[in-house]
Amino acid sequence: MEGGFFNNDNAGGFSEGSSFSGSKRTLSEHTIRPLTVKQFQDIQVVSDNVFRLDNMDVNSVTVVGVVRDISPSTTNLQYTIEDGTAMMEVRHWHEGSNPDGAELPSDISKGSYVRVNGRVNQFNNRVNCIAFAIRPITDFNEITFHFLEAILCHVRLTKQSGGDYMQIDSGNGAEKSLSDYVIEVVKRYHHEEAGVHVDQIAKELQHKAGADRIKEVVEELVNEGHCYSTTDDYHIKSTEA
């Protein structure tokens, strides 16, 4: 499968046993990073032709989604890709110039699921993707696999950099993430019909992180399906209790 972080034969890819040692710059230059469209939109421009996500430089990416629109021009095809997290535009340039517009591929149409391999680019102060390969997906297990790759890569990188999934010493030699502490508090209030208010979670975990950070983690847990809101956006219950 293309663009995989599990495949050992991918140049620079992160295999299951990767330790993330060595230069971040070197890793990013030789790795095709699996992303969701929302993650792609979160890429930050550091300087000219230098882009960063999860505190790591990123140049080449692979995205999976459904084609919502195709707009041909004399020099390229512009695809609108959606994967359930967001929508993005991808340009696929072709050689030569056709006054009648670029020829549409016979195996890709609106509604098709595709894998896009491309590079990150900046145009008109916006981050976009220039594709060097677009192919249709015939095995839908590839879609699930891609999302798992994107999640695994994000978790590993943010653990390493002390980001969203930073580890906190629990005092008994084991390490727990801030998300684990939040879920513990939420579960303690599962008997309450409305669950627990996010302000109460922040109050109980004020020795672990600030209120704004706690609220960010709560939002992440809701988005990932670990928790859900009840009477309003501020009362939370766990889906695991």
TrEMBL record:
Residues 161-234 form the Replication protein A C-terminal domain. Coiled coil: none annotated. Gene3D superfamilies: Nucleic acid-binding proteins, Winged helix-like DNA-binding domain superfamily/Winged helix DNA-binding domain. Transmembrane segments: none annotated. InterPro entries: NA-bd_OB-fold (IPR012340), NA-bd_OB_tRNA (IPR004365), RFA2-like (IPR040260), Rfa2/RPA32 (IPR014646), RPA_C (IPR014892), WH-like_DNA-bd_sf (IPR036388), WH_DNA-bd_sf (IPR036390). Residues 1-23 have a biased composition (Low complexity). It comes from the Eukaryota. It comes from Lichtheimia ramosa. GO terms for biological process: DNA replication; double-strand break repair via homologous recombination; nucleotide-excision repair. Keywords: DNA replication, DNA-binding, Nucleus. It is found in: Nucleus. This is Replication protein A C-terminal domain-containing protein. GO terms for cellular component: chromosome, telomeric region; DNA replication factor A complex; RNA polymerase I complex; site of double-strand break. Belongs to the replication factor A protein 2 family. Residues 61-137 form the OB domain. Residues 1-25 are annotated as: Disordered. GO terms for molecular function: single-stranded DNA binding.
